[in-house]
Amino acid sequence: MVSEAGTELHTAGHNWAGNLRYAAAEVREPATVAQLQDLVAGATKLRALGSRHSFNRIADTAGTLVSLEHLEPAIEVDPANLTVTVSGGTRYGTLAAELQRQGYALHNLASLPHISVAGAVATATHGSGDRNGNLATAVAGLELVTADGGILTARRGEPDFDGMVVGLGALGIVSSLTLDVEPTFPVSQSVFEDLEWDQVLENLDGVTSSAYSVSLFTDWSGDRIGQAWLKSRTEGESASQRTGFFGGSPAKEPRHPIAGVPGTTCTQQLGVPGPWSDRLAHFRMEFTPSKGDELQSEYLIPREHAVDAIQVMRRLSHLVTPLLLVSEIRTVAADSLWLSPNYGTDSIGLHLTWRQDQPAVEAVLPVIEAELAPFGARPHWGKLFDGDASRLAPLYPRFPDFKALADRLDPEGKFRNNFLDTKVFGS
User: Fold this and answer.
1) Strand partners, 193
2) What DSSP designation does 13 have?
3) Three-class SS of residue 371?
């Protein structure tokens, strides 16, 4: 259906996981930035909808949802400044393929290449690597459609820029972003199985620094870790040359993080080198990684508390393991983005992929958060968590500054919703 304004019009439906149906009556899909400006200017309540991969109601609204998926990707590389400018609704898989074609790369990718650039940036979504910041740290500039329908541009180094990048959709609709790129690089990915917990915890820094990106997959039970995925830039020593890894042995065939699921949907493993665009994500763009029948939570912990936080999760195995499909441990470098869970600190991410039993999951989240609270755990903004603004604000030194920025850019609260009122603005 096409609306009078010329934009595509659809019913809102539900998110990727199917655990929530959006309250919005409709989704508008503008084809141009001018159409987007008109939509924003004429709306009372409005939110941007990315790839529907959030597991909570951060993207919901009682008003109108706007998808940027039908805006032209307009992928424009600037070789002189080593940047690429792309529309906010573009998916990372689309961007990565085009960058690789032109001989460039992003510094990292999230597990899924299916997610939108603006949505991932707004929630500080990340990949892994001791020296790799989250995806938002690549943002060198952005274009924002503000509440009055105007265009605001911001560049790295300008006042408030670090508050605008991880914006939670509270400041406006991000129509385009400019990201840092670098020359393309090859990666090999190897999987090791049945690592010994004691060896890993005694040598955690050695484990996480052993490759460009390292992920550990566990269900938190027992004395062994199910899998370690090592993504190595092949300019140096490749993980494929290893015959063992902290008590684990190399997988003989492609693996999926979830036990019993075929590895055919996952990116190339077995140490075979290839372009970054086909290795840094866990899953292939051409496949749907699962049926969506899962839930997710994640907590980012300052690196100095990593071993203690991991031990807490192991002690909670009797509560957590029965509800899990799998859990992933990753590392992320510190940044200066105000609402990034990695603000001011190198972090370890404790990611939980749950079975789709939301009442049971929501019952255990307060227990996990209470146990991780002494370590300053910050939840991933796009996943399920229990804490409200009163508990989150002390974790972010620039929380008051972000709220003031939102008040200035959106004084009438056009972009606010129940999630933001509860988790950020405290009403």
Assistant:
1) 227, 249
2) -
3) helix
Q: Is the pLDDT of residue 266 over 50?
A: yes
Burial 204-223 (b: 16+ CB within 10 A, else e): beebbebbbbbbbbbbbeee
| Burial of 125 (C-beta count, 10 Å sphere; 0-12/13-18/19+) | buried
What CATH code is assigned to 76-184?
Answer: 3.30.465.10
Domain locations in the chain as residue ranges = 8-67, 76-184, 186-286+293-387
Inter-residue contact 197 to 152 (CB < 8 Å): no
Q: For tokens 């009682």, what's the residue?
A: 62
- List the structure tokens of 318: 């009797």
Each residue's pLDDT tens digit, 276-302: 999 999 999 887 766 568 999 999 999
Predicted local confidence at residue 115, as pLDDT:
94
Residue 71, classified by CB atoms within 10 Å of its CB into exposed (0-12), middle (13-18) or buried (19+), is buried
Rounded to whole angstroms, the Cα distance separating 291 from 106 reads 28
Q: Is it true that domain 8-67 has CATH number 3.30.43.10?
A: yes
Query: Tokens 């470098």 map to which residue?
Result: 333
Q: What is the pTM of this model?
A: 0.95
Determine the number of helices (DSSP H) and then strands (DSSP E) in the chain: 12, 20
Architecture of domain 186-286+293-387: 2-Layer Sandwich (3.30)
